[in-house]
């Protein structure tokens, strides 16, 4: 995609959002509504807007500067930057029907929910059906909570649900007023933490780090208007959680600057949470296999985990137990384009978080080239003081990922008094690292192609100069998304390769949510997990009788593997590629489809018990059971060791209309044949709601191989399309590993 065209198409929208922060503080953006158009010609209508504006501002020039939008097609009106007295004067004019300061409804802040289609204006979707999460109780095991955050204001909430049995465990800087009708309970677990880690921490549920507040507000934060990244104007809009009316129960098990979470503390938290009466458990932590979660799931409490941030390396996914939902992270349709203007007037676009532009830094600055690697030794040879430095990620980027070198380069360049940094790297998102530039030093990330153009200009100009414009917020269909984030941990799982992990992907890049009293971006599968936890909470409300396995199935089988243009979702990495089930499980979450999946792959809790027992107390048939884990009735099939042929059984349960006929649509993994029997399934009212079928895979190529991927989709010919991902690996010789 051409970034500059994306830039220009979003420019108008963006102006509306950011300009209030870069103009005279005493003026703000007002929307002036003037009703029906008085003229057919839009130019005449616009001219009349300028006349009116000029009449209050006093000069034609002033009104040109002030006008942001002229509405001239469907109705008449405009948006303009006005002082309060100008606004008052305008409001008195007979042509003006109404006039109000611009507000930031529905915009882009917790943009991720709009991106997922969970919009407040949506009358038919999951959010509405679940009454915005009213009274569901979400347990969050994390680094605690910042109770004063506006996201947890309990205004307008009824009494705490009577079934709640938890408590408000007070501590340092956290008395009983920290709990309210929104944060209905808190507990903290510091017993297995060293004094070293607890030093400087609040010995209470208060969140000294911010991570727990961020995740909790992403799940259940109420609506907070007019927030932006560090209140600097980027991504400004309304912050809210996916289940904005849900109640929050906080279990602090993670402590210290590195947010270390003790396994014992986590287990204690799970134990308490089950007893307290949470409806969903959300854990943005790991890796590790938290066996205690089985007790929550067998009691009907779904458990959601993050997949980990070790990607794009294969076999790094954590939290791989079959009964939990493991979440990968994706990007959303929001970027932060930042214009770079070279001395020859060429304009190029990078990404930045440069929102505190000063007049000094907005002038042209001398550009110097720090070259490839741009390491300390190289930088020591050039005087970067007061200059903008162009740096390229090391040429062997695969060995030293940009995110490893960028923080050091920023420290060094800023320490040497540079005016700015342009950092070239392969296309991958790592904007958060730019927080080290504090929004006040222009630090722009560009790809190698743009870096080459800047470098060519610098090499052929005696005194090359460059100007960096303040970062804008671009949102919408011009932004290629979702994409699996580079950092998102990838499958297959190493402990149980026959269990597909991750299960699902959700937004986790540059998510704006509460942090202390402010709102800040954070990225990670930690941010993706709460998106799924919120959807699970809403599904629990709409379908209180569904088991955790049914909820997981509904989410996985309705996920999307293509973007809104029908293009396959991609996974970032080196190189970028089409995403497969080891990147995103069933695909990208589609909340409004998950509410009505048609069919589900349910699982009897006794299956979980059997699995658990075969690990901890293996008996008779456990060896063959563990060798055939692909027979677990999960909404996915992974056969890690196909020799000639294998038959896999699954059972589907109809949760849609009593009468329905489904047809199997197969996409066989490359190199094998795949068949399904029966391939047509009819449900009749009065008949069984569950049907068992078998899937047979036969290798066609006798090749010791890697995994190939496919899918099985049951379609009823109208609204339901129940898709499960498939991964199969052919093994010919036991003693030859995949790395051969
Ligand atoms: C409880 O904590 C809040 C916020 O930290 C504080 O304003 C209030 O004075 C405290 N109340 C008592 C009784 O200590
Ligand atoms: C929105 O936030 C900005 C920046 O913090 C502030 O200047 C502005 O007055 C706020 N507007 C409203 C309507 O609260
Ligand atoms: C580096 O450049 C700055 C600005 O041009 C200048 O003030 C400074 O003296 C130079 N430092 C050295 C060590 O040359
Ligand atoms: C950002 O702020 C921190 C803390 O105030 C400071 O140490 C650092 O030098 C600043 N970085 C830049 C690029 O100004």
Automatic annotation (TrEMBL):
Listed PROSITE patterns: SUBTILASE, SUBTILASE_SER
Catalytic residue list: 142, 211, 526
GO biological processes: proteolysis
Keywords, comma-separated and alphabetical: Hydrolase, Protease, Serine protease, Signal
Signal peptide: 1-25
GO molecular function terms listed in the Swiss-Prot or TrEMBL record: serine-type endopeptidase activity
Pfam family, one: Peptidase_S8
Keyword Protease (UniProt): yes
Domain Subtilisin-like protease fibronectin type-III, first and last residues per copy: 631-728
Domain (Inhibitor I9) ranges: 30-108
Domain Peptidase S8/S53: 133-562
Family: Belongs to the peptidase S8 family.
PANTHER family, per the entry: PROPROTEIN CONVERTASE SUBTILISIN/KEXIN
Protein name (Swiss-Prot/TrEMBL): Subtilisin-like protease
Native source species: Oryza punctata
Lineage of origin: Eukaryota, Viridiplantae, Streptophyta, Embryophyta, Tracheophyta
């Amino acid at each position: 995609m051409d970034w500059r065209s994306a830039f220009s198409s979003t420019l108008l929208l963006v102006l509306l959002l950011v300009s209030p922060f870069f103009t005279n503080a005493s003026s703000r953006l007002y929307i002036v509504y003037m009703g029906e158009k008085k003229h057919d010609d839009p130019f005449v209508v616009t001219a009349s807007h300028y006349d009116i504006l000029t009449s209050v501002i006093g000069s034609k020039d002033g009104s040109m500067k002030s006008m942001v939008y002229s509405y001239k097609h469907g109705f008449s009106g405009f948006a303009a930057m006005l002082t309060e007295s100008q606004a008052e004067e305008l409001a008195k004019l007979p042509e003006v029907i109404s006039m109000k300061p611009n507000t930031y409804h529905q915009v882009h802040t917790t943009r991720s929910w709009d991106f997922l289609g969970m919009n407040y204006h949506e009358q038919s979707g999951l959010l509405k059906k679940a009454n915005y999460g009213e009274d569901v109780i979400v347990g969050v095991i994390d680094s605690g909570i910042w109770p004063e955050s506006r996201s947890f204001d309990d205004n307008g909430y009824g009494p705490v649900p009577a079934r709640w049995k938890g408590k408000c465990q007070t501590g340092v800087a956290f008395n009983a007023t920290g709990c309210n009708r929104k944060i209905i309970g808190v507990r903290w677990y510091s017993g297995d933490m060293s004094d070293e880690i607890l030093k400087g921490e609040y010995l209470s549920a208060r969140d000294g780090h911010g991570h727990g507040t961020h995740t909790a507000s992403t799940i259940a934060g109420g609506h907070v208007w007019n927030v932006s990244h560090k209140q600097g104007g980027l991504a400004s809009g309304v912050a809210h959680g996916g289940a904005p009316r849900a109640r929050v129960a906080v279990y602090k098990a993670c402590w210290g600057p590195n947010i270390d979470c003790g396994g014992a503390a986590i287990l204690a938290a799970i134990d308490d949470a089950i007893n307290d009466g949470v409806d969903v458990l959300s854990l943005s932590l790991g890796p590790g296999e938290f066996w205690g979660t089985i007790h929550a799931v067998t009691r009907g409490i779904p458990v959601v985990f993050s997949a980990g941030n070790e990607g794009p390396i294969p076999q790094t996914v954590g939290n791989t137990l079959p009964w939990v939902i493991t979440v990968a992270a994706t990007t959303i349709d929001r970027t932060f384009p930042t214009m770079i203007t070279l001395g020859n007037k060429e304009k190029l676009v990078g990404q930045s978080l440069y929102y505190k532009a000063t007049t000094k830094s907005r002038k042209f600055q001398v550009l110097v080239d720090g070259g490839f690697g741009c390491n300390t030794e190289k930088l020591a040879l050039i005087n970067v003081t007061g200059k903008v430095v162009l740096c390229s990620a090391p040429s062997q980027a695969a060995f030293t990922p940009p995110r490893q070198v960028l923080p050091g380069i920023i420290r060094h360049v800023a320490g040497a008094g540079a005016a700015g940094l342009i950092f070239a790297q392969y296309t991958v998102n790592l904007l958060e690292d730019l927080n080290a530039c504090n929004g006040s030093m222009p630090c722009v990330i560009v790809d190698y192609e743009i870096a080459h153009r800047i470098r060519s200009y610098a090499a052929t100009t005696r005194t090359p100069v460059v100007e960096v414009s303040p970062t804008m917020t671009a949102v919408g269909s011009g932004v290629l998304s979702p994409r699996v984030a580079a950092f998102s941990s990838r499958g297959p799982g190493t402990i149980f390769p026959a269990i597909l992990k991750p299960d699902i992907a959700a937004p986790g890049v540059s998510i704006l949510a509460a942090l202390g009293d402010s709102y800040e971006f954070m990225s990670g599968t930690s941010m993706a997990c709460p998106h799924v936890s919120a959807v699970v909470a809403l599904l629990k409300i709409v379908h209180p009788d569904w088991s955790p396995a049914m909820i997981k199935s509904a989410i996985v089988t309705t996920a999307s593997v293509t973007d809104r243009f029908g293009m396959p979702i991609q996974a970032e990495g080196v190189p970028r590629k089409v995403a497969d089930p080891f990147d995103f499980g069933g695909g990208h979450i589609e909340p409004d489809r998950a509410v009505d999946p048609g069919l589900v792959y349910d699982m009897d809790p006794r299956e979980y018990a059997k699995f658990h027992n075969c690990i901890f107390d293996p008996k008779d048939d456990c060896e063959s059971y563990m060798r055939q884990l692909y027979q677990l009735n999960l909404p996915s099939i992974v056969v890690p060791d196909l020799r000639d042929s294998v038959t896999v059984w699954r059972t589907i349960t109809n949760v849609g209309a009593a009468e329905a006929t489904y047809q199997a649509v197969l996409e066989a993994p490359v190199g094998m044949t795949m068949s399904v029997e029966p391939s047509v399934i009819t449900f009749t009212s009065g008949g069984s709601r569950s049907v068992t079928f078998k899937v047979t895979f036969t290798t066609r190529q006798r090749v010791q191989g890697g995994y190939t991927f496919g899918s099985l989709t049951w379609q009823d010919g109208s609204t339901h399309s129940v898709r499960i991902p498939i991964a199969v690996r052919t093994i010919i010789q036991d003693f030859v590993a995949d790395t051969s």
